[in-house]
Write a structure and sequence with these properties.
By secondary structure, the chain is mainly alpha-helical. The protein contains 3 helices and no strands. The longest helix is centred in the first third of the chain and has 16 residues. The chain is globular, with a radius of gyration of 11 Å. The model has no long low-confidence stretch (mean pLDDT 94).
């Protein structure tokens, strides 16, 4: 799977589960999702949805706010975990 396809899936998960206050297509890949309105509850919902979508589990040491702060950081985490 190419990076663009994975990022499209990430953006869809953000739209459906993160509860941000703005349309996801207005959020730059390196912009903070927390600044866009995501709460800690939204980040947990997003993390769970990503695990289901990509059929993987984030290791304990990656379950920190920094992992889910941006599309870039989520994409890097998924790549590290070997998710497609």
């Amino acid at each position: 799977m190419n990076d663009n396809s994975r990022r499209e899936r990430i953006r869809r998960m953000i739209t459906d589960f993160a509860g941000i206050a703005v349309p996801v297509d207005t959020v730059a890949d390196d912009h903070s999702l927390f600044d866009a309105g995501m709460t800690s509850k939204g980040s947990v919902s997003l993390m769970t949805a990503l695990e289901v979508e990509f059929d993987m589990e984030f290791p304990d040491d990656m379950i920190i706010p920094e992992t889910f702060v941006s599309i870039d950081s989520i994409d890097r985490a998924l790549e590290t975990c070997g998710a497609g």
